[in-house]
TrEMBL record:
GO terms for cellular component: membrane. It is a multi-pass membrane protein. The keyword Chaperone does not apply. The chain crosses the membrane at residues 56-75, 81-103. It is found in: Membrane. One of its GO terms (molecular function) is sucrose:proton symporter activity. This is Solute carrier family 45, member 2. It comes from the Eukaryota. Its main location: membrane. PANTHER family: MEMBRANE-ASSOCIATED TRANSPORTER PROTEIN, SUGAR TRANSPORTER. It comes from Mustela putorius furo (European domestic ferret). InterPro entries: MFS_trans_sf.
Length: 104
């Protein structure tokens, strides 16, 4: 709704609803990009962990998430949103792996 300015509650044949549907489609691509970069970063965590350590990986993941969130807030357009989905993938990979390694 914010990026495309569509309205999910308007009539289904209206321009506002079609714009909203396009935003949902692009959002699905963003989730796909997020998942790809999450898996790529999960694969690269072991080599990066030897350089940064687990605490460094944890800090890096949340730093990139904060950076991405701030940039999406400053530039709410399609291209920046899809680009920042890569950083959210890094954070989600960090969130699901590094805390368990730190506890172990």
């Amino acid at each position: 709704q914010i990026v495309y300015h569509g309205d999910p509650y308007s009539a289904h044949n209206s321009t506002e609803f079609l714009i909203y549907e396009r935003g949902v489609e692009v959002g699905c691509w963003g989730m796909c990009i997020n998942a790809m970069f999450s898996s790529l970063y999960s694969y690269l965590q072991r080599p990066l962990g030897s350089y940064l350590g687990l605490k460094g990986l944890y800090f890096l993941g949340y730093f990139l998430f904060g950076l991405g969130t701030g940039l999406i807030g400053l530039f709410p357009n399609v291209y920046s949103t899809l680009t920042m989905c890569t950083l959210f993938g890094v954070m989600s990979s960090t969130l699901y792996t590094v805390p368990f390694s730190l506890i172990a």
